[in-house]
Amino acid sequence: MMNGDMLLHEGLWATAEIDAARTGRDRMDFRPLLRDMKSVISGADLAVCHMETPLAPAGGPFLGYPVFSAPPAIVPALKWAGYDACTTASNHSIDQGFDGLLRTLDDFDAAGVAHAGTVATRKESMQPLVLDVAGVDVALISATYGTNGIPLPIDQPWSVPLINVPRIDRMAARARTQGAEVVIVALHWGLEYMHGPTTDQLKVADQLTRSPDIDFIYGHHAHVVQPYDTVNGKWVAFGLGNAVAQQSTSVEGVYDGNTCRVTFRERADATFRVQKLEYIPTMITPFDGTHPMRLLNVAKDLHDPAFGDLHDALQATQDRVSTVIDMRGAFAKGVTEGK
User: Fold this and answer.
1) Contact at 8 Å (CB) between 324 and 254?
2) pLDDT single digits (tens) 232-282
3) Residue 87 to residue 118: CA distance in whole angstroms
4) Are 113 and 83 in contact (CB under 8 A)?
5) Looking at the predicted structure, is the pLDDT value of residue 290 above 80?
6) Is the pLDDT of residue 25 over 90?
7) For residues 207 and 76, what is the distance between their CA atoms, to the nearest angstrom?
8) Rounded to the nearest 5 degrees, what angle is found at the Cα of 299, between the Cα atoms of 36 and 86?
């Protein structure tokens, strides 16, 4: 399973501080933020998050939009929730320069969470991440459309992988030579707050799905949900929306997201194909200065009396997410809602 952007705005830090005061865990505790989705995350053979922002030193300073430097306490919480890996290629990857990029990777390494996308060395830039997932070797390739106009580090231009179809094709082929049986590509792309895939997204999806080495593509960056569709017979989840973020409540859909759950099955010819594709609608509760933010499993919580005061908001999120997922006919092609 995989989900969308983890964009650590100030409300998320405040939430973690409130929760830490309640749980007694250090300065910030991000675990309660993720608790409602923990069973989904930890129940997957492979759970992948997308860390959009670089991480700050433990003592800060912490910075929000437009140049992020996020609290590293999020990483142990991701591990606790059950994430096995995170993608890290985004338009904010070098908000804090190459040093911030390295610090972020070091924090993931220290927590035992694998990472794909940004890299510390030129050698790593040519080696796709391949993970043993329940006995199946799965490769994860991550790339971004750009870095918000911030030049790539002059001595490390390879540190942030940009979306380049021939390069991604080569990485996928290399993953196969390393033994990968399934290759998944994560792309940071699209237009912010636009539900429909752009012409560029459609073009790149068409080109990449023609590769015999790529099995599944998913995306993030738009901060709203985008549809699922088949392209050249392969599934593309164009945009998973936000996992956790605190953006303007005036923009409809930025507190909606979906976790994409993919089941692969081995065929008689020893290749793997998508057998089942589910979307799990999620909702972020906005921070109001008092009540901490939460990432909620919409279908699970919709009929739970404990969330009765959020029933209308949960229903609206479920309706919006389902409508967008099906914009290009995903339901007729087999996509179903999970929980």
Assistant:
1) no
2) 999 999 999 999 999 877 889 999 999 999 999 999 998 999 999 999 999
3) 8
4) yes
5) no
6) no
7) 37
8) 50
Report the CATH number at residue 230.
3.60.21
Could you give the CA distance from residue 35 to residue 224 in angstroms, rounded to a whole number? 22
CA distance 237 to 302: 24
Cβ 266 vs Cβ 329: under 8 Å: no
* Other residues' Cβ atoms within 10 Å of the Cβ of residue 223: 25
Range of the domain at 248: 2-337
Token readout for 108 is 């993931």
The secondary structure of residue 63, as a DSSP letter, is B
Dmax over CA atoms of the chain, in Å, equals 56
Q: Which of 270, 187, 176, 166 is nearest to 236 (CA)?
A: 187
Question: Would you say 30 and 43 are in contact if contact means Cβ atoms under 8 Å apart?
Answer: no
Tokens 């923990």: give the residue: 38
Is 135 in a helix, a strand, or coil?
Answer: coil
Question: Helix 74-81 and helix 97-111: axis angle, to 10°?
Answer: 40
How far is residue 330's CA from residue 166's CA, in Å, rounded to a whole number?
Answer: 28
Backbone angles phi, psi at 295, to 5 degrees: -95, 115
pTM exceeding the 0.90 threshold for the entire prediction: yes
The total domain count for the chain is 1
The radius of gyration of the chain's CA atoms, rounded to the nearest angstrom, is: 19
**H or E element at residue 206:** helix 199-208
When the pLDDT of each residue in the chain is averaged and rounded to a whole number, the result is 96
| Separate counts of helices (H) and strands (E) for the chain | 10, 15
Distance between CA atoms of residues 176 and 178, nearest Å: 5
Question: How far is 142 from 311, CA to CA, in rounded Å?
Answer: 36
